Amino acid sequence: MIKKPVLWILHLYQRVFTLLSYGSCRYYPTCSEYTRWRVEKENIFSALFWSAMRILRCNQLFSGGIDYPVISKKLEKVQFKKIEVDYWLVPKGQGKFFLIKNFKG
Fold first, then answer.
1. CA–CA separation, 65 vs 86, rounded Å?
2. Which of 32, 59, 75, 92 shows a CA-CA span of 20 to 30 A to 41?
3. What separation, in Å, do the N-terminal and C-terminal C-alpha atoms of the chain show?
4. What is the pLDDT of residue 46?
C-alpha cells in the first residue's frame, strides 16, 4: 500500500536527476537505487531505516565503493522451475544474503 507511492517518488527522483546530470553517488548501487531495491524486497520501515543509514554514510568522511543491500531470508521449499529472475541472493552467512539486481540487457 505504501510501497507503490514510495517507489513512484523514487522513480520520479531518479528521472529528474538523471536529466539534470546532478552529482554522483559515492556508492554502487546509488543511494536511490539501493532504496528502491530495499523497498521492493523488505518491509517499508526496515527499508527506509537502512536507506537513511546509507544516505548518512554518503559523504566525504566515508570512502564509498560497492555496498549491496543485505537482507534476511529463509530459503525453504525451493522449487526448481524456469522463472524470471529480478534479484540474485548471494549468501553472506547465517541466513543473510547480498541482494544483487539482475539487469536485463
1. 23
2. 59
3. 30
4. 92
User: How far, in Å, CA of 59 to CA of 102, rounded?
Assistant: 27
Cell numbers for 78: 525451493
Tell me, what's the pLDDT at 61? Answer: 87
**Which helix (DSSP H) or strand (DSSP E) does residue 61 occupy?**
none
The three grid cell numbers given for residue 45, joined into one nine-digit string: 520501515
Spatial separation of the C-alpha atoms in residues 36 and 51, rounded to whole Å: 9
Pair type for strands 65-66 and 70-72: unpaired
At 26-73, the pLDDT tens digits run 888 888 889 999 999 888 999 999 999 998 988 888 888 888 898 887
How many whole angstroms separate alpha carbon 2 and alpha carbon 18? Answer: 25
Q: What is d(CA 73, CA 27) in angstroms, rounded to the nearest whole number? A: 24
